[in-house]
Amino acid sequence: MDHFLYRDGALFAEDVPVAEIAAAVGTPFYVYSTATLLRHFRLFDEALEGTDHLVCYAMKAASNQAILKTLASAGAGMDVVSQGEYLRARAAGVPGDRIVFSGIGKTSEEIRVALTGGIRQFNVESEPEMAVINAVALELGVVAPITVRVNPDVDAKTHAKIATGKSENKFGIPIARATEVYAHAASLPGLDVIGIDVHIGSQLTDLEPFRLAYQKVAELTQTLRTAGHDIRRLDLGGGLGIPYTRSNAAPPLPVEYGQLIKDELGHLNCEIEIEPGRLIAGNAGLMVSKVIYLKNGEDRDFLILDGAMNDLLRPAMYDAHHDIVPVIEPAPGLEPRPYDIVGPVCESGDTFAKGRLMPPLASGDLVAFRSAGAYGAVMASEYNSRPLIPEVLVHGDQFAVIRSRPTFDEMINRDTIPEWL
Ligand code: LLP
């Protein structure tokens, strides 16, 4: 459920007409709903009620500080994967002891920044990384809390580009080698080995892969405890999928996912962390765009929008489906027509949808891409010298620009010309 609903034929973001935001900030833009962000965070938080837990929002999904602050003030921790994310979370007021650091390529500089600023734990992905964390910790005279990310070799049954839990993927250490790697970790004086981490992929629409992975984690917990390790925290990653279209069967709910966690891992009495990103932000955001032209091709009609693949990459990159809806509902009785919905970027991959049935639309009409809150703005680029589009946050009947649209001068003047030119 989200808070983007029609009232009297006009699409609203909570209590604000989307067209009013478009008039104020211009198109294209992203708009997020505070109530939806909070609702989704709380669904996870409540799903783990009765268990010692922390929901660490995977901020790679949508990392504007206003979003981070909204979630942190409701009790969220953060899952970060770079120095930039770490510093952004800190800038948004998230304390270090609520930040977990994931990612396979943490540099010694990133590790130093996090150890100095405060960190809940590093999720370690390899032995070379473990050695560097140990070295930096010793140099700073601190002990680094770590989990080791294990790769359970489970098929997440999702898009190949976002599956991470098979042995052929670059993530984690093979679960079969875990005993050996944990023994090595425990021998390093700069590390405090506190738990196990796993993340098998994103946009999972079936609970079974989670169950298989978590069963392996439960087994490993027992094995490692028997070997003398004080395993007290399990980071179970993110990955629960969202409905991208209303016609498909809905993916499992956070409450069902929470029950699965309790069933498979509850008996271990570990602190549980989860790292959801998409489910919190995805359906809490729209990308709003305007029709520039309606172009009649030989055998199809093209709706040419002012938003493009550089603004919302997912359709071009993953063939992802996003529902696209008119901001002002057309008069009833008009027959929908098939359109190829495209952006102005100079490649055919800049296509959002092919043969999509839409009410008749004309130049100047506004459309909204649903489910664009996660992996939308954060994956945008300035390809074709198109400035990054603004982000807006709605809260009840108020809205605020949380990232403004750069001017063309701001974008262009970031280049510097060498003196020989
Ligand atoms: N934890 C780790 C270690 C991750 O790598 C990810 C996502 C998450 C948590 C959050 O997963 P989520 O709950 O959002 O599924 N750009 C792609 C998605 C990439 C996901 C990368 N890792 C897309 O647009 O579909």
UniProtKB/TrEMBL annotation:
Transmembrane segments: none annotated. The active site is at C346. Substrate binds at R278, R314, Y318, E347, Y375. Residues 29-373 form the Orn/DAP/Arg decarboxylase 2 C-terminal domain. CDD domains: PLPDE_III_DapDC. Gene3D superfamilies: Alanine racemase, Lyase, Ornithine Decarboxylase, Chain A, domain 1. Its EC number is 4.1.1.20. Keywords: Amino-acid biosynthesis, Decarboxylase, Lyase, Lysine biosynthesis, Pyridoxal phosphate. It holds the Pfam family Orn_Arg_deC_N. It catalyses: meso-2,6-diaminopimelate + H(+) = L-lysine + CO2. GO terms for biological process: lysine biosynthetic process via diaminopimelate. It is an enzyme of class 4 (lyase). GO terms for molecular function: diaminopimelate decarboxylase activity; pyridoxal phosphate binding. Pyridoxal 5'-phosphate binds at G239, E275, P276, G277, R278, Y375. Specifically catalyzes the decarboxylation of meso-diaminopimelate (meso-DAP) to L-lysine. NCBIfam families: lysA. Belongs to the Orn/Lys/Arg decarboxylase class-II family. LysA subfamily. Homodimer. This is Diaminopimelate decarboxylase. It comes from Tritonibacter horizontis.
